């Protein structure tokens, strides 16, 4: 039977691993997780916290999303609040090595980073889409972690939180840069995913799924290609300049143009055929993409 385990605070993390009182109530850095008498097998773990973890000497594997992941040296994994983490092996053990930054959303809630954290979409990636960093990249990220650690270890003053957040934001910006590099260095693999994505859309738009289910969601598209929707969208944006949503809308508009020019079906019925519950939503999207409403497009051709 699977047990559910939810962590609400930094203090609870420290209690779980017997680390003593945290230096800051909203953020901690853990260099090494001590061995504890806790069986992680058959556990589904969630939390209210963000986590950034570099390397980590992990025995066994754990599952995040749909895939099992061996946490290798030289990788970074990212977890966002309320994501489910499960452990595959009874002997899975988080040991020494690497570092982990764990922080509560309240740390950044009033800051600019609190407004932009959603832009760091790698927090929504599946764990098997972890960031693989070169040695010099690891050194850079570790230096930023150490700046945060230094702030935590000295007396907290009115500047502490701003400096902690500034260094945390810099670290995330470097991670985004390194992810872009990772996408580019895997360009052949990326092109294969694009071909498969285009084939999936072509099949979907030719089937009854469009009428019955509406436009495919980002998560649906990602699942079809065995990756997270966020990872797929970022990959497409870097390779083609368009997000997954942009590609989906492109297919929709092309199909709409064909229906408008090759039938006498009303615009409302075409909207229903394209999976729209409300025709006005279709007309609004069509005009936003073409500069003209559907009826006028039909009359111009």
Secondary-structure-based class equals alpha+beta
Cα-atom radius of gyration: 23 Å
Oligomer: single chain
The total domain count is 2
Question: Major beta sheet, specifics?
Answer: 5 strands, mixed
Helix/strand order: EHEEEEEEEEEEHEHHHHHHHHHH
Strand content: 5-15%
From the coordinates shown, what is the CATH architecture of the largest domain?
Sandwich
Strand order of the largest sheet: 1-3-9-6-7
By DSSP (H or I, 4+ residues per run), the number of helices equals 12
Tell the overall outline.
elongated
pLDDT < 50 runs, ≥5 residues: 57-73, 89-95
Instruction: Count all strands and give the number.
Output: 12
Helix content: 40-55%
Q: CATH class of the largest domain, anyone?
A: Mainly Beta
Average pLDDT, rounded to a whole number, is: 82
Q: Do you know the CATH topology of the largest domain?
A: Jelly Rolls
What is the distance, rounded to the nearest whole angstrom, between the alpha carbons of the first and last residues? 63 Å
Give an overview in words.
The chain is α+β, with helices and mostly antiparallel strands. It folds into two domains: 3-130, Jelly Rolls (Sandwich); 188-300, Homeodomain-like (Arc Repressor Mutant, subunit A). The chain has helices at 10-17, 112-116, 135-153, 160-185, 187-206, 209-213, 218-224, 229-240, 244-261, 267-273, 279-290, 294-300, and strands at 3-7, 27-30, 43-47, 50-54, 58-59, 62-64, 67-69, 75-79, 85-87, 93-94, 99-103, 131-132. The strands form three sheets. The protein has a five-stranded mixed β-sheet with strand order 1-3-9-6-7. It is elongated. Mean pLDDT is 82; it is low at 57-73 and 89-95.
């Amino acid at each position: 039977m699977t047990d559910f385990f939810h962590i609400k605070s930094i203090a609870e993390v420290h209690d779980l691993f017997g680390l003593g009182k945290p230096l800051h109530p909203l953020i901690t850095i853990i260099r090494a997780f001590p061995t504890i008498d806790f069986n992680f097998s058959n556990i589904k773990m969630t939390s209210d916290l963000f986590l950034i973890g570099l390397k980590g000497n992990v025995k066994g594997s754990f599952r995040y999303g749909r895939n099992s992941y061996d946490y290798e040296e030289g990788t970074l994994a990212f977890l966002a609040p309320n994501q489910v983490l499960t452990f595959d092996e009874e002997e899975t053990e988080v040991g020494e090595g690497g570092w982990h930054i764990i922080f509560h959303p309240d740390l950044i809630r009033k800051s600019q980073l609190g407004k932009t954290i959603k832009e760091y979409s790698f927090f929504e990636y599946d764990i098997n889409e972890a960031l693989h960093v070169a040695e010099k990249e690891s050194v850079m990220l570790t230096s930023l972690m150490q700046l945060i650690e230094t702030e935590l270890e000295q007396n907290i003053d009115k500047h502490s939180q701003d400096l902690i957040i500034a260094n945390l934001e810099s670290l995330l910006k470097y991670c985004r840069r390194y992810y872009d590099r990772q996408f580019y260095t895997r360009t052949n693999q990326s092109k294969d995913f694009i071909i498969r994505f285009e084939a999936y859309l072509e099949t979907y738009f030719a089937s009854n799924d469009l009428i019955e289910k509406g436009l495919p969601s980002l998560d649906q598209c990602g699942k079809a290609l065995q990756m997270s929707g966020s990872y797929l969208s970022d990959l497409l944006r870097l390779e083609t300049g368009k997000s997954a949503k942009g590609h989906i809308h492109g297919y929709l508009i092309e199909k709409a143009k064909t229906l408008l020019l090759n039938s006498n079906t009303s615009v409302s019925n075409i909207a229903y055929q394209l999976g729209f519950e409300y025709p006005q939503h279709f007309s609004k999207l069509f005009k936003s993409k073409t500069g003209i409403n559907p009826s006028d497009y039909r009359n111009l051709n």
